[in-house]
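Lab channel / #folding
Pinned by the channel admin:
"Please post every new chain as: sequence first, then the structure tokens as a reply. Keep commentary short and put observations after the output so the thread stays searchable."

First post following the new format, from NK:
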Amino acid sequence: MNVMTEMHNPMSVLGASKRAELDRDGAICVRQAVSAADVEMLREEIAFVVERDSPNLTDHTKRNKGTSGRFVSAFKIWHDRPKLAAFTHDSNMPALVGELMGADRVNLFFDQCFVKEPGTADPTPWHQDQPFWPLLGNHVVTTWIALDHVTRDSGGVEFVAGSHKWSRWFQAKSFSGENELERHEAFEEVPDIEADRSAYDIISWDLDPGDMLVFNGMTLHGAAGNASGDKRRRGYAIRYTGSDVVYDPRPGCTQSLYSDALKAGGPLDGSEYPVVWRRS
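Reply from TO:
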């Protein structure tokens, strides 16, 4: 069964246990959430963005020029791609996220693609998402759709279960080591997870194309480089927010996410971060 196309009430398909699992661990896996046709569409859209060096494309491999692989991402790509706009706005994804969060409404914050080519040495450092973003609130969720077979060896995402409930904010840092973000005096350094992995409850899933991770904006996560010889690791992420989230233009966030149209402490409503679902 395909969750995105065959559900009317998302939670009737996923069950209340998935909401409880997301609340407990901060991350879940939804198998075959996206159809084969949509997976192929997403691959084509991402290829267009990456191969044409979109202005929103970031190369995270700059510090390792001697390696054979490449790790790139691009964000806010739905604005110029009608198929991605339809997928992020009009599919069942916003309803699914709204039910999982228990929110009364869902805003689309932004979308993002990630491509790790075979032989990419660069890991995705352990981090939380929310310190990068000018937001406050609990209803902050990412859906990460696998477009290839993904294993830890090819750069699968790992999570520290329960870390979204630590009530700790960790300093946001550039993945490439360049253009570091302004430091926030109240944020801590990210703990060295790799130095003592056994001290943490690390969870991950091998994924098939169409499988989807859903995780909280405060959940610590990271990924190894792509050590496979022939497997690309492509993922499409959609960042959604819910009804308790407000705009917080504090220092040290990703510059392009600030908005002159929003007021500090106010909702994200507007054309830049549109409402895509409301509870009826």
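NK: The first helix runs from residue 10 to 14.
TO: also worth noting, The chain has one domain: 18-262.
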